[in-house]
Queue: 3 jobs
Job 1
Amino acid sequence: MTLDILTPEKKLYSGDATLVQLPGVDGLFEILNNHAPIISALGNGVLKFKSNTGETNIKISGGFVECLNNKVIVCAESGTVI
């Protein structure tokens, strides 16, 4: 699946991912390939994703995620790769 992680200041990541773990407002959840369509609010926490190059962690503060047709778009208020 493809993953785009955006903040108002910049694009933090754009590329392929095999797993995305997100800090939802009610707790952590994961999105895998062929996930059902979803739009969800995000809370403060660590977004984790796996790709061919390994695992990446990004500390985010709030935002939203949309998943549709194997494309995941994360719009975060702010984000820092950790």
Job 2
Amino acid sequence: MGIFVGALLNNLPPLLFVLLMRDFNLSFEQVGRLVLINFTTQIVIILTSSRPVDRYGVRPFITAAHLFAFVGFLLFAFAPRLFPNHPYWALMIATFIFSIGGGLIEFLISAIVQAIPSDAKAAAMSLLHSFYAWGLIVVVLGTTLMLNIVKGLNWHYIVVAWAIVPLINFFNFMRVPLAPPIKEEERTPTKELLTSPFFLLVTLGIALGASSELAMSQWTSTFAESVLGLSKTTGDLLGLSVFAALMGVGRHLYGNYGKRVNILTVMFWGSAFAALCYLVASLSPIPILSLIACSLCGFGVSLLWPGSLSVAAERFPNAGSTVFALLAAGGAAGAALGPWLLGLIADNVPSSFPLSPLRVAMLVGTLFPISMMLTLAAIRRRQTLPKGQTSV
């Protein structure tokens, strides 16, 4: 449920982008800025919380995370009505509040699972993050159903309905058993992580992986409706839902059979496949083919985030929550910049350009998975070196 709440916080607002643009006359960049605020806030919270978490334990922070999510969603739903003269400012403030919860959830859930004794940590991490994908599907299907019921009106109550989930999990985490933290004298110093070229490469990789994943998932709904001319229901169900399903399948498959395959190899070819999907989505003259490419991209990016976590955790097993905090910050940076850059590019494409603005933005987005491939090659090279040995 914790990873589901993370999926809810990151993906519900983009499903409402078209409605927000309609109701409050917002631009592509302004709705993209909400994504930027979300993940920028997560970065700040992640980077400032790892040491207090190691000192005071996980429970007070994971419960507070769900409370922030609940309160933030309530404000997101009703702030525009409470502040009708400044609705966009109200949306930004509400986004900031629920993003505090999202930041804490992002690295604490992974740290909680990593702390559970297991001989298959990478598989467990992949299986955990598969529930992010299943959560995304539930969010898309549930939101689509509710939007059809209210006919696009009173979307505020849909946000309120989803706010119940983090409230329930707030009480769950007050009593769930948690593994004890690593003792401070046994913990890998943060300085060792930040001065490790291997760790910095993995951090860059998770940022690029997050950009590859989120730039596609955050814009698929709007892309299908405003560019491909498909209905919102078609775009959400055949585009975003299938994207999430294939992402979940990829993570679930590795969770069950991952012991037999090198995670970096899978991530490399997944990145290549994602780059191909970006190209087809942006350039295909056939709308349904573009939508299929958006959907298939979910399989390509499925292991880029959890795979990065597993690679770093295996290299630094005694880093505690810090390794997940730093990686989550890198991932959040990529998740913030990727969708925002696509929105910024779309707003600045000349009207005379032969491709529509969002198609141009999607074409530029191809650089995310291509850069990920180059980063993975560098990580693979350093992984074969003895720890501490340097390489040009």
Job 3
Amino acid sequence: MVYTFSTWLFFFYFYCFLGWIWETCYVSVLKARWVNRGFMRGPFLPIYGSGAIVVLIFTLPFRTNAALVFLVGMTSATILEYFTGVAMEKMFHVRYWDYSSQRLNLNGHICVTSSLAWGAFSVILTLYGHTLVERLVSHLSVNVLEMIVFVLTVYISIDMAESVREAFNLKEVLLSLEESSEEFRRLQKHFEVASAFYGGELKERSEAGLRRLNSALETGKEMCDRLGESSRNSRAAIMEKVANAKSKKEYGRIDSLLRRNPHAVSKMHEEAFTRFLTLSSEEEEPR
């Protein structure tokens, strides 16, 4: 069978859909609840579609050699997974999958268990599964195939654009939370330094020492007021940002993105990510 560009696109979308079925069922069983798994909102997981295409490109020339298919498929898909993970974390500051808890992992983006799974998937796909998909496509006329591909391309492009926007919105929220935390810690540090400095001057009993004492008390009180005000303002700013996001339905979309990726973490903004999840849970509590 000769593969055209439309054929390859159909294969990509088809395996994106199969990957979504697998991941959604697997994660839903682990969580004991329904989880619409994936970066996108629709029933497609591009990492599986991309993995399948890469595997097919490299393994179809020797599709009858199971050992070679396993080795080449495992290697090519693992490389794809690693660089995809690195690129997504660099762009969005969030890891949407993380193998840090697994043994023999590389920066949390890949691990031996995942690589072996890719190898097994490659054998099943190349030697058995893909033959059935080829037969399905061979029964479709060129016009029907191109129409299906066109509709799916439009739908998936819109879904991907929205999902990328949600991921960037989450990144902005994390950056805002981190900035507020840094400001709080900076003011707290200044207060501690000022308190220590003026505290040493209390030993002086001179008139100048008493003036320093009064100045220290006033400065300390002012610093406490600023610290408290900063804390209140920071939280108010955060809640205002969340409220504004909610009014634009952005918060709900970000929350939906994280629900689709329950294992997502942010190594770059770990504290801010935790604070955001805490704020999300507080907002969801009934009043």
